[in-house]
């Protein structure tokens, strides 16, 4: 039975607050708009406030948070630019969340001043960070996350292809943890979360122009979930955990689903049809029963191997609190071989919210770029970034090199751009998880042997990122 369509509510425009560091403010007048930019790349700092003996459950520079906002960057070959979004702020002491957009120009090797797409007003929570996509015409779509039912999400589209100078506000709707996937000729498959007392997974699809949208449909409701997803050739895959009793601190189990027809049907990795919403924790989508192993599951990334089979990157832990109590925290992959799921460990980490990305490359190299090494704030979120590689489909892993070292603050949330260019292969933010600090943004190349820091202050309209030497 076809999904009934409805038009998203429109014509809501976010109020922008003027601050001393703002260069301009976007003011709509018919089809004209004056862009509002910031005078540098300043990431949002945040502390969840749930503290135990070894500090906060998670805190620090969270401009590239969360793992469940994806993608945060897209490389556009037509213009040789990597466009990206992040959670910015006016000044660290203000913790005023701004949904920012910008790009790295691979020809000039410069970045412009970043643009404010949406001002979150009094919100300082990076759960409201944006993610983005680019459609087949080159229009940039920015999905600014909401939070629970008290703060709605917002959808924006650039007025011109491959251009960050002006965005139109299309709608306000309920969504958190946005994961939009553009299907050429088909429109969006949009995966997201709704707070219904617990965190449940939903999806919605658009028409081929991203205009009219279907009703929201529930994908899974087993007490709550977090998910990571990806898309290839019209096929959307998702991996998710479940929250026993609705408690995210008890997150466990590993599940997988896929759709090749924009959500009309959902199947397991083995092709078995399932009928959403999933409500049974022991359903056929279960990849591994970590609940019986008394392990917590923190999802990091998901991708496709050379045969199109899914590979899931995740971390398991024995406790939701930071510090030694949760050790060992193990980075692992689950790989569908075409016949069965296999599991391999990569390395260990010091924090549940250490977040990195998985790269499954055409030459057969599997790569993980993540903060697996101990940082200056030992028990805090993040650490030093390292590259891990496998050349036997994930069966064995070797640390290739350290990307950062001798840093002043922990680095965290390494994000993989969609269609990643070798010169802008992962980007992230730093920050002190133990106390409020400034937060700067970085990116690295594919090898991980060169890292750049985006300019914190920009007196000019464009600037070259600074090469980082030993974290300084």
Describe this structure in words.
By secondary structure, the chain is mainly β. It has no helices and 41 strands. A hairpin with an 8-residue loop joins strand 15 and strand 16 (167-173). The termini are far apart. Mean pLDDT is 92; it is low at 1-33. This is BNR/Asp-box repeat protein.
Q: What is the strand and helix layout of this fold?
A:
Layout: E1 5-6, E2 28-29, E3 32-33, E4 45-47, E5 51-52, E6 55-56, E7 59-61, E8 73-76, E9 81-89, E10 97-105, E11 111-112, E12 115-119, E13 130-134, E14 140-144, E15 153-158, E16 167-173, E17 176-183, E18 187-195, E19 199-205, E20 213-214, E21 217-220, E22 227-232, E23 235-242, E24 252-259, E25 266-267, E26 273-274, E27 286-288, E28 296-304, E29 310-317, E30 329-336, E31 341-349, E32 357-360, E33 366-373, E34 384-390, E35 398-402, E36 410-415, E37 426-431, E38 441-444, E39 451-453, E40 462-463, E41 466-467
Antiparallel strand pairs: 1-20, 2-3, 4-7, 5-6, 8-9, 9-10, 10-12, 11-40, 13-14, 14-15, 15-16, 17-18, 18-19, 19-21, 22-23, 23-24, 24-27, 25-26, 28-29, 29-30, 30-31, 32-33, 33-34, 34-35, 36-37, 37-38, 38-39, 39-41
């Amino acid at each position: 039975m076809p999904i009934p369509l409805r038009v998203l509510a429109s014509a809501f425009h976010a109020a922008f607050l003027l601050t001393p560091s703002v260069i301009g403010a976007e003011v709509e007048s018919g089809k004209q708009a004056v862009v509002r930019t910031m005078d540098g790349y300043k990431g949002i700092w945040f502390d969840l406030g749930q503290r135990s003996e070894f500090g906060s459950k998670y805190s620090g520079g969270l401009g590239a948070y969360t793992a469940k906002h994806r993608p945060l960057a897209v490389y556009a070959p037509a213009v040789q630019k990597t466009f990206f979004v992040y959670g910015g702020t006016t000044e660290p002491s203000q913790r005023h969340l701004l949904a920012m957009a910008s790009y790295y120009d691979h020809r000039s090797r410069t970045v412009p001043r970043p643009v404010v797409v949406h001002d979150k007003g009094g919100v300082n929570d990076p759960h409201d960070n944006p993610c983005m996509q680019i459609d087949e015409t080159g229009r940039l779509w920015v999905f600014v996350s909401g939070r629970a039912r008290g703060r709605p999400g917002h959808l924006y589209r650039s007025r011109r292809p491959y251009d960050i100078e002006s965005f139109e506000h299309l709608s306000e709707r309920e969504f958190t943890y946005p994961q939009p996937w553009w299907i050429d000729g088909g429109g969006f498959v949009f995966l997201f979360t709704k707070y219904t007392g617990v965190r449940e997974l939903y999806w919605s699809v658009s028409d081929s122009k991203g205009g009219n949208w279907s009703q929201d449909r529930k994908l899974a409701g087993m007490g709550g979930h977090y998910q990571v997803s990806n898309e290839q050739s019209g096929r959307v895959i998702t991996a998710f955990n479940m929250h026993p009793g609705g408690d995210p601190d008890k997150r466990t189990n590993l599940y997988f689903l896929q759709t090749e027809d924009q959500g009309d049907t959902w199947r397991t990795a083995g092709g078995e049809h399932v009928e959403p919403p999933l409500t049974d924790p022991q359903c056929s989508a279960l990849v591994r029963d970590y609940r019986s192993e008394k392990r917590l599951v923190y999802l990091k990334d998901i991708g496709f191997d050379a045969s199109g089979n899914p590979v899931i990157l995740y971390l398991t832990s024995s406790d939701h609190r930071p510090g030694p109590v949760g050790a060992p925290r193990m980075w692992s992959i689950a790989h569908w071989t075409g016949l069965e799921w296999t599991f391999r460990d990569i390395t260990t980490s010091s924090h549940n919210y250490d977040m990195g990305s998985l790269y499954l490359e055409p030459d057969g190299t599997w790569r993980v770029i993540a903060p697996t090494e101990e940082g200056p704030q030992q028990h805090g979120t993040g650490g030093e970034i390292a590259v891990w590689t496998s050349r036997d489909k994930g069966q064995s892993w070797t640390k290739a090199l350290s990307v950062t070292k001798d840093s002043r603050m922990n680095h965290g949330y390494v994000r993989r751009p969609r269609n990643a260019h070798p010169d802008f292969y992962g980007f992230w933010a730093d920050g002190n998880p133990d106390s409020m600090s400034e937060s700067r943004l970085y990116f690295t190349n594919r090898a991980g042997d060169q890292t750049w820091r985006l300019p914190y202050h920009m007196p000019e309209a464009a600037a070259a990122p600074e090469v980082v030497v030993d974290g300084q």
